[in-house]
């Protein structure tokens, strides 16, 4: 079903005033162009763990590489630096679990809608692209969950907004994310039903475009995944701040084929990184302080060796 292949949500029609825009027409960028890794970032050299490497399916372990499908840009999870290299916390975590399994990581930059079919076809081994693990997707895939993220609003500093009272506001979002389909669209519909002004939605192809619109004052607020919000605030030189509390938290997961032994291998590698502290270090490099897990999960349940 089409809804399986959207980044983090389901497409749903709504009564919304829509202004479709592109970041290409803006004169500034919240990140002032992504030049590379954050200050303090380190490339970790993580040793393989033989008992975890032995869990890897033979067709993967024999070739010595593991291929992950990802889609850019979605900073800080996955995006390209000024040299065109794909970086981000999703990439760093995927590379770390590959190292624990004794493998080299290979990246396949794909349209987001093609990643899950590629996992099914075996052209990539798993996906690492901020996939929300939900019941619908679990019908066809297993998910190794590695981080909880929710929806977080941001606003211009000194101009607070209330996500629970959004009628009449102009809000920027990345198109087809949960922020658009499960947050802004339903809230705008509720405004109309109450006889109030709908939300004016600025829909962008990238999270960077949505954040830039807020920084420039084209939007009153931005709705985004919490890691995206935190990254935007950190890069905006004090021009924007979070508004309200994080809500609708759900796990990000790595999709693998249903019942694949790769799922437990990934979960075991992730648990090793959690126990060693490298998991928290990697996310800390990217400013991710909330939503960290203490136990690796498969389909929302704690992984038990």
Automatic annotation (TrEMBL):
Keywords: Signal. InterPro entries: SBP_3_CS, Solute-binding_3/MltF_N. It is found in: Cell envelope. Gene3D superfamilies: Periplasmic binding protein-like II (3.40.190.10). Residues 65-290 form the Solute-binding protein family 3/N-terminal domain. Signal peptide: none annotated. The keyword Disulfide bond does not apply. Transmembrane segments: none annotated. Belongs to the bacterial solute-binding protein 3 family. This is ABC transporter substrate-binding protein. The lineage of its organism: Bacteria, Bacillati, Actinomycetota, Actinomycetes, Mycobacteriales.
């Amino acid at each position: 079903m089409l809804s399986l292949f959207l980044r983090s949500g389901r497409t749903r029609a709504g009564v919304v005033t829509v202004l479709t825009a592109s970041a290409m027409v803006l004169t500034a960028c919240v990140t002032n162009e992504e030049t590379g890794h954050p200050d303090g970032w380190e490339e970790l050299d993580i040793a393989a763990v033989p008992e975890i490497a032995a869990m890897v399916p033979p067709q993967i372990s024999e070739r010595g590489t593991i291929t992950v499908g990802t889609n850019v840009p979605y900073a800080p999870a996955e995006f390209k630096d000024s040299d065109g290299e794909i970086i981000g916390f999703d990439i760093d975590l995927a590379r770390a679990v590959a190292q624990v399994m004794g493998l080299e990581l290979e990246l396949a930059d794909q349209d987001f809608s093609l990643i899950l079919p590629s996992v099914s076809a075996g052209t990539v081994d798993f996906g690492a692209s901020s996939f929300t693990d939900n019941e619908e997707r679990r019908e066809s895939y297993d998910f190794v969950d590695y981080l909880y993220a929710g929806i977080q609003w941001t606003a211009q500093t000194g101009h607070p907004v209330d996500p629970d009272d959004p009628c009449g506001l102009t809000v920027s979002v990345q198109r087809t994310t949960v922020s658009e389909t499960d947050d802004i669209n339903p809230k705008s519909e509720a405004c109309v039903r109450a006889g109030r002004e709908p939300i004016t939605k600025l829909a962008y192809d990238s999270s960077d475009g949505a954040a830039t619109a807020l920084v420039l004052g084209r939007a009153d607020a931005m709705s985004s995944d919490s890691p995206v919000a935190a990254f935007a605030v950190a890069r905006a030189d004090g021009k924007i701040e979070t508004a309200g509390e994080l809500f609708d938290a759900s796990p990000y997961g790595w999709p693998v084929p249903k019942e694949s032994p790769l799922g437990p291998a990934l979960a075991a590698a992730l648990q090793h990184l959690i126990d060693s502290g490298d998991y928290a270090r990697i996310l800390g490099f990217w400013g991710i302080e909330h939503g960290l897990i203490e136990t690796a999960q498969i389909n929302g349940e704690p992984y038990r060796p």
